[in-house]
Design brief:
109 residues; mainly alpha; elongated
Amino acid sequence: MERTERTHLAAATKPAATASTATAPGAPTRATGTKDADGMAVASFILGLLGLLVLNVFLGPIAIALASVALWRGTARRGRAFLGLGLGIADLLVLVAFMQFDSTVSWNF
């Protein structure tokens, strides 16, 4: 066999790329998804921490949701996501405690 026939034969037996392995232009890759999840973990931590001081009725549930989604997507910052989850829950517990103390839906200093 000649060299050109071998390369032609090798090219003919090589499997073609399927639609499932090809990525569409602009489609998020695994690295982008992980970066998004890492950002959500950090955002949940910051919002949970901020929610202890102000707007805990809004920031607590947002922190819980962001932390849950970040953990579900497999963030590399699992510690921050768990802290955001804990702080979001603490926001709601602080709100409930002050609602019982003041008999209102909000609290102030």
